[in-house]
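Can anyone check this?
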Amino acid sequence: MADKNYRSSTGVTGFHYGVVGDGTTAESVERIKFLQNITVEMASEFVKAYGDNVTAEIATSNGDITVSGAFHKLPIEDKQVLLGMETVDGISAIGSTDNPPYVAVIFEKTHEDGSVEYVGLPKGKFSRPNIEGQTKEDSVEFSSDEIEAEFMDREVEGFTDPKSVLTAMDEKGETTNRDAIYQKIFGQPYPDEEVTP
């Protein structure tokens, strides 16, 4: 058996999304830079059946996947896509009849040794974020943009049952699993891009 990796992640980066609609292939893959934090909540609870004064059976009830993330700034172009916003004459609008598109998402958890863990979410929708602001005081404070989504199971090539979260890991300098998870989640190869801070 190979040596297990017990190194904890120390950062997040590489947030990509793509509109998948009712299919499994993204129209295009877009990057949002400066991801600050992200949480993937996987609701799960045990349901027990009893008999003869003991537990007779235990089943697992799994709920939808909830994702919440914060970015240094969420560009308006990405909000327009993720939220299905209508834009007229340079003005974007949110209304009660908005219906965001189904999207797929991948982000990266980075490690100090250079290895990377990829987390892929194959199909979900983002919800409208709150709009907040604060007055400037004696010192400058940067705000951040937060957004939430829910993801559901989707057929993923190669897996027997529908899945809602995929993970993969590459050691430093390797990209084999990265390339594979991009194909599974977006139906496209990893996008060649210049990553500049």
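Reply from J.R.: I decoded it. The helical segments are 76-83, 176-186.
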